[in-house]
């Protein structure tokens, strides 16, 4: 029995995934229910499990993209079936469906070599074992000459390239890269690569403007202290993030022109108010799950959903639908940050994002007197192509009214 490893459909709006990492090598035995492949969209990762126990055959290497429903590998129950599917990796439908992605029929038609069938990418023929060796030694396979059938690159070709690379290391370290010594090389991949590409597109494709300021959040602090006294009754611990999501959703309802996107030369003003909340994922960057229809939810409902999404973010279990569909994003600067202000980058296609800092007690002048007040800094970035400075200021003025007098939220 041979079962395909297929890109799953895990969201309504997701059409393709990038293959991040195969958790087993070509020919390794995998157990039913174990993770065999990690995939990702621009905003979240997903794990594909083995449907049966058997031997893994890889059709598409990590780093490539594949559409939902595409077969990118196969699991054969027996060694005999594995060897057969390896030799006929583009064979009959009752074996394994041919891959229709970047690998062309000509590239996959070679006979099986060392470690498996030829795997094609960018017009190159290379066996899975050879490709794995090249990746481990950071070799550019386009510079390796294949000696196999049709110019296919095999194990011996990669070993020769590794040897040649070792001999070149005898050069002085200071000339390793344009006169600079290299401590190490870390490829940009996975979530970090997706975030890098997304941020670059955002900055290069929109006219971003950032305004900054501070709010006196004395009454918000008192409100939260009162709410915490009811923590046991409410079954949730209200956070400042929860309160800000609640305030933003009400402010966006009063200023629909902020809740928009510029798409295909049209300004689309969204009927839904979906507030994304940025969560840190260590060195990987940020993930932004979305509170859908936040303006229709109570503070209690928002608090519970934000905590649920935050837990999923930590566990890397967010579904694609939970990180898409946002219309506005809230980002926060933690207490450990040395900076008070930021210039947040738009989470496209959204037209605005708000970053708020940690609450700090600072001296301010009130009624001619120097007093200490809890102060929160903010930075609002918006796309100046669709939101002008006046609109941004009006939006911030409404937020200030809610922050300085939360009772207005009850009207």
Q: Can you write the helix and strand succession as a string?
A: EEEEEEEEHEEHHHEHHHEEEEEEHEEEEH
* CATH superfamily descriptor of the largest domain: Chloramphenicol acetyltransferase-like domain
CATH class of the largest domain: Alpha Beta
SS strand fraction: 25-35%
For the residues shown, what is the average pLDDT?
A: 83
Helix content: 25-40%
The count of helical stretches stands at: 9
Give the distance, in angstroms, between the N- and C-terminal Cα atoms.
65 Å
Radius of gyration: 27 Å
Largest sheet: 7 strands, mixed
Briefly say what this structure is.
By secondary structure, the protein is of the alpha+beta class. It has helices spanning 79-87, 128-136, 155-168, 190-204, 218-228, 231-234, 240-254, 299-314, 389-404; strands at 2-6, 16-22, 29-30, 35-40, 45-49, 54-58, 65-67, 71-76, 119-121, 124-126, 208-216, 260-263, 266-269, 275-277, 279-280, 286-287, 290-291, 328-332, 352-356, 360-366, 369-383. The radius of gyration is 27 Å and the shape is elongated.
């Amino acid at each position: 029995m041979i079962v395909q490893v297929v890109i799953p459909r895990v969201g309504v709006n997701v059409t393709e995934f990038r293959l991040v990492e195969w958790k087993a090598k070509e020919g390794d035995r995998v157990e039913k229910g174990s993770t065999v492949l990690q995939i990702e969209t621009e905003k979240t990762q997903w794990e594909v499990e083995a449907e049966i126990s058997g031997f893994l055959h890889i059709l598409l290497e990590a780093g490539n993209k594949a559409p939902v429903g595409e077969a990118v590998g196969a699991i054969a129950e027996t060694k005999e079936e594995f060897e057969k599917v390896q030799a006929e990796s583009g064979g009959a439908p009752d074996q394994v469906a041919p891959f229709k992605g970047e690998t062309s029929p000509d590239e996959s038609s070679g006979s099986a070599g060392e470690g498996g069938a030829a795997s094609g990418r960018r017009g190159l023929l290379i066996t899975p074992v050879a490709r794995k060796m090249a990746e481990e030694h950071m070799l550019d396979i386009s510079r390796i000459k294949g000696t196999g059938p049709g110019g296919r690159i095999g194990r011996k070709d990669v070993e020769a390239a590794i040897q040649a690379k070792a001999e070149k290391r005898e050069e002085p370290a200071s000339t390793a890269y344009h006169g600079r010594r290299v401590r190490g090389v870390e490829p940009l991949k996975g979530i970090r690569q997706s975030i890098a590409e997304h941020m670059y597109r955002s900055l290069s494709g929109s006219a971003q403007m950032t305004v900054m300021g501070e709010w006196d959040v004395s009454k918000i602090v008192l409100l939260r202290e009162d709410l915490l006294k009811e923590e046991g009754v409410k079954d949730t611990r209200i956070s400042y993030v929860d309160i800000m999501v609640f305030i933003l959703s009400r402010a966006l309802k009063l200023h629909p022109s902020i809740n928009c996107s510029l798409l295909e030369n049209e300004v689309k003003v969204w009927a839904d108010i979906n507030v994304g909340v940025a969560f840190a994922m260590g060195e990987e960057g940020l993930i932004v799950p979305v509170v859908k229809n936040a303006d229709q939810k109570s503070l209690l409902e928002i608090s519970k959903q934000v905590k649920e999404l935050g837990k999923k973010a930590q566990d890397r279990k967010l579904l694609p639908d939970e990180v898409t569909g946002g219309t506005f994003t809230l980002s926060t600067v933690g207490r450990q940050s040395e900076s008070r202000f930021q210039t947040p980058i738009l989470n496209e296609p959204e037209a605005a994002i708000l970053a708020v800092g940690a609450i700090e007690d600072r001296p301010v002048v009130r009624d001619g007197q120097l007093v200490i007040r809890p102060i929160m800094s903010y930075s609002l970035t918006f796309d100046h192509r669709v939101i002008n400075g006046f609109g941004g200021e009006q939006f911030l003025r409404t937020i200030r009214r809610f922050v300085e007098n939360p009772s207005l939220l009850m009207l």
